[in-house]
Amino acid sequence: MDLARQRIVVTGGAGFLGRFVQAQLKARGVAPANILVPLHKGYDLTDRRAVERLYADTKPTVVIHLAAEVGGIGANRANPGRFFYANMAMGLHMIEQARIVGLGKFVQVGTICAYPKFTPVPFREEDLWNGYPEETNAPYGLAKKALLVMLQAYRQQYGLNGIYLLPVNLYGPGDDFDLQTSHVIPALVRKFVHAVDTGAKEVEVWGTGKASREFLYVEDCARAIVAAAERYDGPEPVNVGAGLEITIRALAEKIGALTGFSGRIVWDSSKPDGQPRRCLDTSRAAEYFAFRAQVDLDEGLRRTIQWWREHESAS
User: Is 288 one of the annotated active-site residues of the chain?
Assistant: First the structure.
């Protein structure tokens, strides 16, 4: 697909990942006037009538659906019902309206939280249905996974060209650094930078540190999404990641060192670790649309820390 010839709606396009997706689309030659970013104040995507109006107003040929209600373990524990409803409703209405208008292509960005709690590492797409997700984020993960089923069913019955991507945990400049809602990297960056700035001798971190995660720099993820929109037209879900695993303990120590923190890390084992391990097999992405991550973790963390230091006074 020649994206430069398309009218592309990017839901969530004003958000963390969305801004990088917009930049990648422009780099592919898409005119800014053909990148259409609906804002929540104008279009509540959980409302069917608002979604109908969005399609009528923008007349897209491609939709990249990034919009989500999401957060870290704490936010998922506090809002399981809202996270299930909002993510299910947004995807349901967006995909159904795509069918009605005969959309050329629908790109659904899912979540790694859809995988079963005890998926063997590295996670392969074939294992997606071999168990129940980790309990703290299961409502969010299941709502997103249901959209994979919907797209596959709509492809079979209606011929809708919908693809489904499974990005691993993202991080980078512009992430959510609010300690009530953030994911692990921005939360740790904020805590360690604050400790350095105030001379604190300790930083408290949730869990035991034994759980592992894989992290993908946000700009790499945006490249993958745009590459898939251009080159991939299949029904199978595709993992998007860097293919490298690190424990939360090692991650915290790394961020502490990069921020210049020399104190003690205190682990609050009364808080949950979440999924025990998380690391992807990324061979499909390499095969189907030639994606490989370019920014390594150390470089990505340095860029993220620098961004936060430049913007923390505005938080």
Answer: no
Measure the CA–CA gap between 66 and 15, rounded to whole angstroms. 9
Q: How does pLDDT run across 193-235, given as a tens digit for each residue?
A: 999 999 999 999 989 999 999 999 999 999 999 999 999 999 9
As a whole number of angstroms, the distance between CA 163 and CA 15 comes to 21
In tens, the pLDDT along 75-129 reads 888 999 999 999 999 999 999 999 999 999 999 999 999 999 999 999 999 999 9
Q: With a threshold of 0.90, does the pTM exceed it? A: yes
Flag whether 124 is in a domain.
yes
Q: Look up the CATH number of the domain holding residue 236.
A: 3.40.50.720
Cβ burial, residue 76 (10 Å; 0-12/13-18/19+): buried
Of 55, 115, 140, 217, which one is the catalytic site residue? Answer: 140
Q: State the residue range of the domain holding 16.
A: 3-174+216-243+276-294
Phi/psi of residue 142, nearest 5 degrees: -70, -35
- Angle between helices 248-259 and 297-311 in degrees, nearest 10: 50
